[in-house]
């Protein structure tokens, strides 16, 4: 098969890129392939589906903030039910943590992120189940718990259905005449000479070379441009040609709870319009949880860093003991309502982490564009990133993000990267 | 075993770090281990042993320039015969290439790198075997050869014996009472809680944790600080704990020639004091070669980028066809004296490449220091990097490089990295 553009990966970044590339010039043949049997079957569909514009880096803020605006457009104007729920984020801090992060929070606010400050007591009024004071508590001391003195509430943050989001882009892409082949794995990037001489073992070191498409078990797909959007599987394609995709894969687990003992926690009144638990980030151990409106459940995750290996798995699994031996001990201190509550469901996805600046990468090489290293925020930055791919393909210096906001395309490349490091990391 | 400092890796970066750490405080117990049976048995000993201060980045320049000064001290004052030969580098350019790189070259010169410009004709007077004009040459056109219009000669550049260099540091380290255990592989970094509770499966996500040493087949080695200097094998230790070592391994091959047909090429008169072929970099295909004085041979390598896979091998092998099918066709055009000449010897080592800024990394994490990602220039920057390790261990803001030059330690970390990208890459 031959095509103008081949996109590899039907996750959020591949699908949104496919949409904007096709939309820009519907006369182009744009083909998307994925090894799995539908959209968002890799890590996108396993995402927590939380979004925020709380980023300290200018690029991260712009990518996320404009993408959130697009989410509203997608749901409210274009009519896709992506279960958008602007239920807020609350970042919980001890006094000491807050003062350490104060500058970062001020930077965010200056960028435009609307935040509200709450005292620990105010938060406890909204969320009575939350313990905020651990002075003179022996177990808490062993656990090294931090008091909750301050909560930073992000207004333009919330939750959506990641799967529905990918399907919405898919529907738009197909409506424009885009072509999708599921169950079609790209086994290899075709590294070929720009001017083939027909000699075996080309390209040689003295030949100009490019990525000319991919191999699949059903045959080669030749493309003028190959967009690699395979997320944590990017290294499987790029390592064999020696291109550094600047990410390492790491598993993250989610646990879902549906239990009458959590009803009061789930239904937080007055903080947001939906009267549901916002995404709250505990001040210890990277534990975060959010109310999931449509399912009336609570989803919980944990940002484990040192100690959690880098590994790319086709089917990552949640670990039972990870909740019960690890998270639970801290969780039940902050939220005693979890006492003896077990998750009803659990699953695992993977982050493609750029450890350097925790910001995604969009870069072109000969014959290809790489979009990835989304570091766990691919969903919430997807629309902006896909528009950057569109601009890059069309050789434009600036991408036009939703809401007519400009983003300098080369800033997010590896080669000419100009990205501030994120200083506030979950 | 317990020790104050454990260094993993008896390559150039491990051995030089061991020396400076022990030298700084000889009362500390400093133990170095390596999986192989002697110093420099991994990639260091397979290095080309070329050195240069021709770097455009400020950090790279300072690291290399001060290390070169140290080489002279090592050989001329301390009496180690590291076969130092200041025979120069010549970077060969076409007119067009030169004008594209002119700013980079000016930047280098401004930093202090002493360079001399030669015209193609002047170079041909020194190296009569070199073809410099390929106009109206059909085969050259197919090969896309560039004329040689300009040569940038770097004065403070040359060649040394990498193996002897590592052994020199080893001798000094041992003289100070350092301890080395060869044939001792670190199979695992010990990731442990700072305050162990004695519960299985520690550390938990809520525990502060650190690297407490390594496992070896002969037992655990506990260390206050573990210095990981395993080069291309760094990911094998760091990936399991989820720390990004910021490098990908890539094979590089060297071919050695000893043939009477190359005698005139080998003995270049007047360019340097040794009257030997400097390291010359051809304007095409990343091919470089140098005269090797002690062996009266010519060593040749090729900087293959796209197409050469990332992979870490225990015993990387040179590929016969890589010379004959790949390099040879270009080489014999520039240097017809290679006609039908076959390498007498060939070997392969590996680069630990930081694709982002082609500059090494020295960074600390809890309980450990990582030195690596040397991107093919570990030998020529070793002394400065080891002094940065010493400063980092001693919690100093600035390292004191040889010649009383200061280097801000945090600049070369990943976390607070302040490194200019290298713009002139071989």
Describe the model.
2 copies of one chain form a homodimer. By secondary structure, the first copy, chain A, is of the alpha+beta class. Chain A folds into 2 domains: 209 residues, FAD/NAD(P)-binding domain; 164 residues, D-Amino Acid Oxidase, subunit A, domain 2 (D-Amino Acid Oxidase, Chain A, domain 2, 2-Layer Sandwich). The first copy, chain A, is 27% helix and 26% strand. The first copy, chain A, has 10 helices and 20 strands. In chain A, the strands form 4 sheets. In chain A, strands 1, 2, 8, 9, 10, 11, 17 and 18 form an 8-stranded mixed beta sheet that branches. An 8-stranded mixed beta sheet of chain A has the order 5-6-4-13-14-15-12-16. In chain A, a hairpin with a 5-residue loop joins strand 13 and strand 14. Chain A is elongated. Chain A starts with a strand and ends in an 18-residue tail after the last strand.
What is shown here, in short?
Chain A is α+β, with helices and mostly antiparallel strands and 426 residues long. Chain A has ten helices and 20 strands. In chain A, α1 (12-24) packs parallel to α6, α1 (12-24) packs parallel to α10 and α2 crosses α10 (378-393).
Total domain units of chain A: 2
Overall 3D shape of chain A: elongated
pLDDT average of chain A, as an integer? Answer: 96
- Helix percentage of chain A: 25-40%
Radius of gyration of chain A: 22 Å
CATH topology annotation of the largest domain in chain A: FAD/NAD(P)-binding domain
Q: CA-to-CA gap between the ends of chain A?
A: 43 Å
Output the structural class of chain A: alpha+beta
Specify the CATH homologous superfamily of the largest domain in chain A. FAD/NAD(P)-binding domain
Question: Which two chains share the most extensive interface?
Answer: A-B, 51 and 51 residues
Identify the CATH class of the largest domain in chain A.
Answer: Alpha Beta
Please state the second-level CATH architecture of the largest domain in chain A. 3-Layer(bba) Sandwich
Low-confidence stretches of chain A: none
């Amino acid at each position: 098969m031959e095509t103008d553009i081949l996109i590899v990966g039907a996750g959020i970044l591949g699908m949104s890129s496919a949409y904007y590339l096709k939309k820009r010039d519907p006369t182009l043949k744009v083909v998307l392939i994925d090894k799995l049997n539908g959209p968002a079957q890799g890590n996108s569909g396993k995402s927590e589906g939380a979004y925020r514009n709380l980023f300290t880096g200018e690029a991260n803020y712009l990518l996320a903030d404009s993408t959130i605006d697009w989410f509203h457009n997608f749901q409210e104007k274009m009519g896709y039910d992506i279960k958008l729920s602007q239920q807020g984020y609350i970042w919980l801090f001890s006094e000491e943590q807050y003062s350490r992060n104060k500058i970062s929070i001020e930077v965010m606010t200056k960028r435009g992120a609307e935040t509200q400050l709450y005292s620990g007591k105010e938060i406890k009024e909204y969320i009575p189940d939350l313990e905020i004071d651990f002075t003179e508590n022996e177990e808490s001391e062993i656990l090294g718990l931090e008091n909750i003195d301050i909560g930073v509430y992000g207004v333009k943050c919330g939750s959506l259905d990641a799967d529905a989001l990918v399907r919405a882009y898919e529907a738009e892409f197909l409506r424009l005449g885009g072509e999708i082949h599921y169950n079609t794995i790209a086994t290899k990037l075709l590294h070929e000479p720009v001017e083939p001489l027909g000699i075996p073992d080309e390209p040689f070191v003295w030949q100009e070379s490019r990525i000319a498409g991919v191999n699949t078990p059903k045959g080669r797909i030749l493309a003028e441009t190959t967009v690699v959007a395979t997320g944590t599987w990017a290294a499987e394609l790029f390592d064999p040609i020696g291109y550094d995709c600047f990410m390492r894969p790491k598993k993250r687990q989610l646990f879902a709870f549906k239990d009458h003992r959590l009803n009061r926690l789930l239904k937080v009144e007055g903080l947001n319009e939906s009267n549901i638990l916002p995404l709250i980030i505990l001040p210890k151990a990277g534990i975060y949880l959010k109310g999931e409106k449509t399912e009336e459940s609570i989803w919980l995750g944990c940002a484990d860093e040192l100690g959690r290996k880098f590994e790319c798995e086709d089917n990552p699994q949640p670990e039972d003991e990870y909740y019960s031996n690890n998270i639970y001990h801290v969780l039940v201190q902050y939220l005693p309502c979890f006492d003896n509550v077990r998750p009803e469901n659990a699953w695992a996805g993977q982050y493609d982490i750029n450890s350097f600046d925790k910001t995604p990468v969009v870069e072109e090489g000969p014959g290809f564009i790489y979009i990835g290293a989304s570091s766990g925020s691919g969903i919430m930055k997807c629309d902006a990133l896909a528009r950057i791919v569109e601009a890059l393909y069309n050789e434009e210096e600036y991408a036009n993000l939703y809401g007519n906001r400009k983003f300098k395309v080369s800033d997010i490349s590896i080669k000419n990267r100009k990205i501030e490091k994120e200083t506030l990391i979950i």
